[in-house]
Amino acid sequence: MFSNIVLVTVVVFVLWLAAMGYYLYSSRQQESLEKQVEAVQKMLDDSGQSEA
User: How far apart, in whole angstroms, are the C-alpha atoms of residue 28 and residue 15?
Assistant: First the structure.
């Protein structure tokens, strides 16, 4: 029975690590995407002002 508890603990720990890794990866991707969106908005604003 003790081995089952150890196995469950290891599985929970591995799943927790995977969830944290995914969260950190996706939050870093979001920051990069936000910078790209800001750059595109700036380009659109600049091109709109030069045409007017």
Answer: 20
**Residue whose entry in the numeric block shows the structure tokens 């939050």:** 27
DSSP 1: -
Please, is 50 exposed, middle or buried when counting C-beta atoms within 10 Å of its C-beta (0-12, 13-18, 19+)?
exposed
Q: Could you say which residues of the chain have pLDDT below 50?
A: none
Whole-model pTM over 0.85: no
Residue 31: HSE in the Cβ half-sphere, 13 Å Cα cutoff: 5
Q: Which amino acid is at 14?
A: V
